[in-house]
Amino acid sequence: MSKNITGATDKYLQRFLNGVEKRNQNEPEFIQAVSEVAESIFPYIADKPIYHEMQILERMAEPDRVVMFRVPWTDDEGNIRNQRGYRVQFNSSIGPYKGGLRFHPSVNLSVLKFLGFEQTFKNSLTGLPMGGGKGGSDFNPKGKSDNEVMRFCQSFMTELYRHIGEDTDIPAGDIGVGAREIGFLFGQYKRIENRFVGVLTGKGMAFGGSKIRTEATGYGTVYFMQNMLEHVSDGFKDKTVVVSGSGNVASYAVQKVNDLGGKAVTLSDSSGFIHDPDGIDQEKLDFVLDLKNVRRGRISEYADKYKSATFHEGRPWGVKCDIALPCATQNEINGDEAKTLVDNGCMGIAEGANMPTDLTGIGVFQNAGILYAPSKAANAGGVAVSGLEMSQNSARIAWDEEELDQRLKGIMKGIHDSCVQYGQQDDRVDYLAGANIAGFIKVAEAMLSYGHT
Ligand code: NDP
């Protein structure tokens, strides 16, 4: 790129970011997500004036609409409680809004806008016709009885149902929203609408769910890492892998690492992490799945049960490893932690969680030249199989596990290859730029076709 173009690009980028910051004050996560994408897109569109003229990125950084609503519910003691519910319908240029629901006390508009923005690019990368959306509530399911969770979900859906539909907006799970919550939500939707349609994904197998959906995000993250390793003639065999989180994504990432011959040695939750140098094998993982999904306990109990393991406060990034898979939450790797990983010889990061690395941390990985897969590419397997669940629901069919796993692998390989196509630099692949540009192109083309909408 010539010096003039570079100078002009920096100027446009700065002007764009200033505008985003001004319009979205007090939304740090959203500004962070938009900045990370814009830094890749502005150089790409520098010599494509149509994108500037049509204000494509400016429009992409504004949700189509945001719905906010009151969610009253009654706890087991008979007290009336009040939560805030949201659905951010971010961009429907290439398909109906699609993205999960998060129930966590940290949920606010900034978090859901960042997730909805990211989702738009991620869904585009899958190659399936899905737009981007995200929703949720500041409700905390932790410590609540099943009946309390049910009453909350029913109240949440009593408002949400009018904003969603199988061809409009199809939510799924995310942090705090697993099989139990999806069941309660779907039951209430069906009751209000008197229609049995695929309006949610991640459903139970008895009522329209898809095989592999539960496993898809974790498996897909590991498949993406495997693709990156194969691209540099390497593989998972005998690699030590540090994983954060102990929920849906983390658990199935560990399972797939084991399948491919690697050794996962950590899991975490918001209280701390366990380190098991012997590896977390299937028997230990079954204990974790029961602990988290049935008994709803803390990961520290793992170290009480398995003497090979120790429990520590904080995050697991100080444990020496070859590969790191952050699978808990946003901004869980800062600059110092990224540096520790690199200094300890970590050669690859694939983000199972959404935006787990902050902007400084990303800079550390990029400068070190190690394999770094951003979340919108690495964790797209979950929404990809959600897209396949939608197809199965529409066609009233059910594919078997093998077929779905093959499709998942194919989609993750396709995303990998798109990142290589748009991120290839002299001697390495910039997966961050590749994912951002590849995700952008399809949405931008659709928006150009629609004119000023
Ligand atoms: P779960 O609720 O199943 O598990 C979340 C895990 O992360 C728990 O171990 C939880 O610990 C931990 N965690 C959550 N918040 C924090 C925090 N603030 N600090 C430390 N630990 C925390 O969620 P998922 O596994 O579904 O989601 C994990 C990540 O993956 C999220 O970023 C999500 O957006 C992303 N993702 C999920 C997809 C899916 O299909 N489920 C699809 C694509 C991305 P604790 O129990 O103590 O809170």
In short:
This protein has 453 residues and is an alpha/beta fold. It has three domains: 3-60; 65-196, 3-Layer(aba) Sandwich (Rossmann fold); 216-378, NAD(P)-binding Rossmann-like Domain (Rossmann fold), CATH 3.40.50.
Outline the structure in words.
With 453 residues, the chain is α/β, with parallel strands linked by helices. It folds into 3 domains: 3-60; 65-196, Leucine Dehydrogenase, chain A, domain 1 (Rossmann fold); 216-378, NAD(P)-binding Rossmann-like Domain (Rossmann fold), CATH 3.40.50.720. The two termini are 32 Å apart. The strands form 3 sheets. Strands 1-2-4-3-5 form a 5-stranded mixed sheet. It has a 5-stranded parallel sheet with strand order 7-6-11-12-13, sandwiched between helices. Strands 8-9-10 form a 3-stranded antiparallel sheet. The chain has helices spanning 3-23, 28-45, 49-53, 56-60, 109-126, 146-160, 179-193, 213-231, 248-259, 282-293, 300-305, 335-343, 359-368, 375-378, 381-395, 401-423, 431-450; strands at 65-74, 80-91, 97-103, 131-137, 169-172, 240-243, 263-264, 266-269, 272-275, 310-312, 323-325, 348-350, 371-373. The structure holds NADPH dihydro-nicotinamide-adenine-dinucleotide phosphate. NADPH dihydro-nicotinamide-adenine-dinucleotide phosphate (NDP) binds at residues 173-176, 178, 217, 245-250, 269-270, 327-329, 352-354, 379, 382. NADPH dihydro-nicotinamide-adenine-dinucleotide phosphate (NDP) binds next to helix 9.
